[in-house]
TrEMBL record:
Chief site of localization: membrane
Subcellular location(s) per record: Membrane
The encoding gene: amt
Keyword terms of this UniProt record: Ammonia transport, Coiled coil, Membrane, Transmembrane, Transmembrane helix, Transport
Domain EAL: 24-274
Record-given protein name: Ammonium transporter
Family per similarity comment: Belongs to the ammonia transporter channel (TC 1.A.11.2) family.
Keyword Coiled coil listed: yes
Amino acid sequence: HAKKSGRNTFRAYRKGMDELIEKRRALEADIERGLERGEFELYLQPRVSARDGAIIGYEALLRWNHPERGMVQPGDFIPVAEVSGKIIGLGEWVLREACRLAVDLPPHVHLSVNVSPVQFRHPDFLAGIEAILQETAVAPQKLELEITESVLIDDDQRARLILGHLKTLGVKIALDDFGTGYSSLSYLSRYPFDVIKIDRSFVSALGEQETANAIVRTIIELGNGLGMRVVAEGVETVEQASYLSAAGCDELQGYLLGRPQPVVEIAREISETVVIELRRIARRTVHR
Ligand code: C2E
Ligand code: MG
Ligand code: MG
Ligand code: MG
């Protein structure tokens, strides 16, 4: 009897595995088809100055308008795309699309793009970026690449060479999700980061866990001391924003400042900002 139930458990397990593998295969094929049919879209989330709320730039966040499944979030397909290698084509699409968008942004506004470790490790990574920069004729200063600590772990020499080369081109580099990975402090002095992004988990724990406040203050001090801009991710409350701003954080990003939105919405927002800015300049001129 025990033997039989064991066999049944195994069969159920096999069935579960087969279904999982089948589902993943379907998703892989779906990604390919989704790219061909234009189902992917970049949403933009603003990053604002902690001093005066001015928009410094936007982070591009990938969305998938799936014909059957509706809007699919990156957490549900990027891991599969990474394992299957589909992230290479997808990442190239993201970069090209982001650079095209960046061309139309005001000159002082940059666009941040997330780079998967799988993309970064690909031998053609750097050549691909150079080609897209050239093809879109975007000012490289408008492009910022967000990488995570995991890309720095395995091939130190290569990572340093690539980051150094990107910097020479004028592309900015941000260290994303800071504090969640292996987070060795030595990364900060060994690589030429322009920006460090404090992970959302620390920001959301501000005022709730004493250690979070200490960690956040220390990251800000460290970043400032090394001449990097420090950005806080996942800012949702006014209390978090004022704490971060008082602590010397340079930029804020999070639902409080703006949710990720389709590009059309952003375009409306920018033109409004420009209008307000123009009005302010006009008023100042009249006063004088
Ligand atoms: P990330 O780069 O750390 O992006 C920040 C994530 O936090 C985004 O989730 C964003 O929508 C979310 N977020 C922003 N503000 C708040 C807030 O105030 N509260 C909360 N709860 N969440 C907030 P999203 O868009 O689902 O992206 C998740 C992750 O997927 C990203 O984390 C990034 O690692 C990855 N990802 C997104 N787009 C791309 C892409 O184009 N390429 C690659 N390789 N990865 C991407
Ligand atoms: Mg990011
Ligand atoms: Mg992040
Ligand atoms: Mg993340």
